C-alpha cells in the first residue's frame, strides 16, 4: 500500500481544492461507486465510504474527504462535519493498535483508575496519544456496555474483558511479537504524538466558531439576535416552510398552536401584540417568555 503525504497538515480543515490523484483512491473508486449504487441518494454513501477509506488508510485523510465530496456532490465542509461528529473516525494518523479502555461507572468501581494508570505507565503515553514507534494509540473512553465483565477495553474494536496488569502485560508482549489474534489497522502515514484536533479542542474549551466570535450571545433560543426565539417562531407561522411535511419536530408541528396560546396569554396581560408578531405591535404587555418555558400550560404536552 502506497504512503503519501497530504497537501494539508493532518487535522486541518478540508479545503476546496480537488484531491490529488492517488493510486489508492483510484483503486477504491469501483468500491465507492458500488456503495453509491446501493442508495437512492448519493450522500447516503458518505459513512460507508469513510469506513472504506479508514480501513485502507488507517485514518480518514484530507484527500479522502475531498475525493468523497466530489464523488457525492457534497461540499468539503459537509463531509468534514460528518466525519468530525463520529469519534471512531480518525482525522489524523493513529497507531496500528487502538487501545480503548473503558472509564464508565461500573469499570471505575472495578478498578479502572488503576488499569488506566498502568496502561499510561506501561506505554509511556497519555490519553489520545501514540507511542513513538507508531504501534499503540491509547484512549480512555465512555461506557463500552460490557459491565458484567468490568474492567474492559477494546483493541481495534475487539473486546478484552476482566483486565488485570498481568493480562495487559501479556497483551502488549504479544502485540509487539506479532502474535496477538487481533489484526493491526492499516498505517499509511507516520502518526504524531497526539491525534487531537486543534479546532475540536477550541470548541471543547468553550471557544466560539469563527461565525460566532463577534456575537456576545450566540446561543440564544432563536440564534444570534433572537434571544427569545420569537423571530424564528414567527417564520414558521407566517412563511411557507418547505420541510413542514417532512418533519415531526414539535416546533414545526405545533408552532401555530403555541402561538395562539401565547397570544391569549399576552392579551390577558393587556398586551396588544401577540407572540408571533415578534413584539412589533406589543406595547406595555407582559414580557414574552422564551421558547422552552411552559407557555402552553401543558396543553401541547
Structural description of this entry:
The chain is of the alpha+beta class and 301 residues long. 37% of the residues lie in helices and 7% in strands. The protein has helices at 23-37, 46-57, 62-72, 76-85, 105-109, 112-123, 165-177, 198-204, 230-238, 250-253, 255-268, and strands spanning 97-102, 129-130, 136-141, 153-155, 158-160. A 5-stranded mixed β-sheet has the order 2-3-1-4-5, covered by helices on one side. Helix 1 (23-37) packs antiparallel against helix 2 (46-57) and helix 3 (62-72) crosses helix 4 (76-85).
SSE layout and pairings?
Layout: H1 23-37, H2 46-57, H3 62-72, H4 76-85, E1 97-102, H5 105-109, H6 112-123, E2 129-130, E3 136-141, E4 153-155, E5 158-160, H7 165-177, H8 198-204, H9 230-238, H10 250-253, H11 255-268
Parallel strand pairs: 1-3
Antiparallel strand pairs: 1-4, 2-3, 4-5
Amino acid at each position: 500500500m502506497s504512503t503519501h503525504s497530504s497537501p494539508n497538515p493532518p487535522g486541518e480543515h478540508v479545503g476546496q481544492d480537488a484531491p490529488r490523484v492517488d493510486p489508492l483512491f483510484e483503486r477504491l473508486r469501483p468500491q465507492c461507486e458500488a456503495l453509491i449504487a446501493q442508495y437512492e441518494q448519493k450522500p447516503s454513501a458518505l459513512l460507508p465510504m469513510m469506513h472504506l477509506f479508514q480501513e485502507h488508510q488507517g485514518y480518514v485523510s484530507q484527500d479522502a474527504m475531498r475525493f468523497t465530496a466530489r464523488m457525492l456532490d457534497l461540499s468539503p465542509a459537509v463531509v468534514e462535519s460528518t466525519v468530525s461528529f463520529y469519534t471512531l473516525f480518525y482525522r489524523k494518523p493513529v497507531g496500528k493498535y487502538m487501545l480503548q479502555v473503558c472509564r464508565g461507572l461500573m469499570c471505575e468501581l472495578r478498578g479502572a483508575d488503576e488499569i488506566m494508570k498502568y496502561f499510561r505507565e506501561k506505554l509511556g503515553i497519555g490519553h489520545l496519544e501514540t507511542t513513538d514507534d507508531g504501534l499503540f494509540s491509547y484512549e480512555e473512553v465512555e461506557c463500552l456496555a460490557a459491565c458484567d465483565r468490568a474492567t474492559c477495553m477494546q483493541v481495534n474494536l475487539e473486546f478484552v474483558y476482566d483486565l488485570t496488569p498481568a493480562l495487559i502485560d501479556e497483551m502488549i508482549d504479544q502485540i509487539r511479537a506479532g502474535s496477538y489474534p487481533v489484526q493491526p489497522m492499516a498505517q499509511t502515514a507516520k502518526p504524531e504524538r497526539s491525534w487531537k484536533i486543534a479546532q475540536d479542542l477550541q470548541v471543547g474549551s468553550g471557544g466560539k466558531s469563527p461565525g460566532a466570535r463577534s456575537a456576545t450571545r450566540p446561543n440564544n433560543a432563536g440564534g444570534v439576535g433572537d434571544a427569545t426565539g420569537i423571530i424564528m417562531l414567527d417564520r414558521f407561522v407566517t412563511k411557507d416552510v418547505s420541510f413542514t411535511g417532512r418533519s415531526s419536530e414539535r416546533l414545526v408541528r405545533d408552532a401555530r398552536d403555541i402561538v395562539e396560546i401565547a397570544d391569549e396569554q399576552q392579551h390577558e396581560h393587556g398586551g396588544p401584540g401577540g407572540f408571533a408578531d415578534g413584539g412589533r405591535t406589543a406595547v406595555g404587555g407582559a414580557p414574552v417568555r422564551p421558547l422552552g418555558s411552559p407557555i402552553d400550560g401543558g396543553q401541547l404536552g
